[in-house]
Amino acid sequence: MMSRRSLLAASAAAASVIGLPRTAAAAETKPAAAGGGTGQMHLAPARTQVSALRNRQISSRALLDQLLEHHARVNPGLNAVVTLDIEGARAAADKADKYLAATGRTLGPLHGLPLTVKDALETKGMRTTCGSTDLTDHVPDTDADAVALLRAAGAIIIGKTNVPTLCQDIQTSNPIFGKTKNPFAEDRTAGGSSGGPAAAVAAGLTPLEVGSDLAGSLRLPAAYCGVYALRTSRGASPIVPTRGHIPRPPDWLTSSDMVTLGPIARTAADLALLLDVLAAPSPADSAAWKIRLPAPTKTRLSQYRVGIWADDAYCGVDSATRNLLNQVATALRTAGAIIDNSTRPVDMATSDILFQRLLYATASATATDAGFADEIKAADAMADDDPAALFLKSRTMRHRDWARADEDRQKLRGIWADYFTEHDILITPAAPTAAVLDQTSVPVPQRYITVDGEKRSYFAQTSWINLASPVGLPSLVLPVGKTAEGLPMSIQLIGPYLSDRTLVSVAKLLAPVLPAAPKAPALTA
Predict the structure, then answer these.
(1) 320, 235, 323: which is closest to 499 by C-alpha?
(2) Model confidence over 481-503: pLDDT tens digits?
(3) Fewer C-beta neighbours within 10 Å, C or N terminus of the chain?
(4) Coiled-coil regions in this chain (predicted)?
């Protein structure tokens, strides 16, 4: 699928230390001196860290060294961060400190902040594999647009976080780096494809991350790892530029018409911090237009009209999740919000099938000519009621069929738009259950999940969060409460197109009135 293989192995060895747990690199990091209450600054919220950096309560180099020492202790058992550029990060931190000392100014809102980036986003001079052996030695000579935005804001990119091969699974493992574990329980999945990013944020290995989301890849891992994540709005173009995201292959200028990038953080306020950096036009468009997401117009929960869709026969949830949604409804009602418990904006089955058709169609763009010809032949010979028909016939649909599917998508967008004339937000489960058992060693056709003792499709994990995906609506996952086993639970907020900031604001308002989610052991040990 990706035939381009970089020949820059020597550059990769010089630019980054691969697989920190399997190298001596961790041993060369030392804890920064404490003092001034900054000895645990690397575990503070990102907003606290950038404030301390700006006020020179801690240097970027000291913060980085704290974080690297934490990596040395935590990452070997988690395998969330798979590539580190220690030398480059230290040089960048020193440069940031010198600039601030000399000018008294910062380069941007993330000045001197060390953070990691998902291994699906190309980083200049740093190995970027997307978990594919075809890209084992791929060292880009250009940053992905989103990475360039991070650097322009003053962030220090210290390394890359793990993904499934080519981001094509909803748990995280690949033949180059192996499996990322859930930070709460080793037998549970961290989710995918942003499993490495979500686990790294949860475990304090980075204060912020940028995840990508086509079929829940950003939000499912956040739900399973107990952190916040925002799938940003997408119309004809995304509000966060996607060039440089793999897949598509390196050097492609386009991406899927449903892929979005968005922030992952430990607090809603930190989501807002990173959203301010990422919501920007691509460099080619930046001279002509800007992105200004509307600010929230309401400041109290009592002002909101809230739909709650707690369960559905198409994708039933377990008893713990139903109880959680009941708690959410009670808390909102107590806060004075107007609640609609009977809300059903769309038919979930119809929406999900349309999403799958569009997903399979866009994913075929990078198939080889020979492979795609074989798929066309097989699809044409297949009956419509064949179990594999939805997949193959969608991947090989004619442009006329895609245009009609896109028309159905636009009509679905209209239905959602009408819904949000009478409701401000919709709250749903993030997934049918908390984090499911990891099934890395099980072939995909044999995988399944269990919901209150009933076997269900493996891909039912994403049905709720994929309500927003085909229609480009913003969707925020926030951690709320825990299961009897101590696993984090989450809910999803969906809002109208371009209401990203409103969703973040609502998440901030909800946090104090809902059950607190647990912190990963790595944050409290």
Answers:
(1) 235
(2) 999 999 999 999 999 999 999 99
(3) C
(4) none
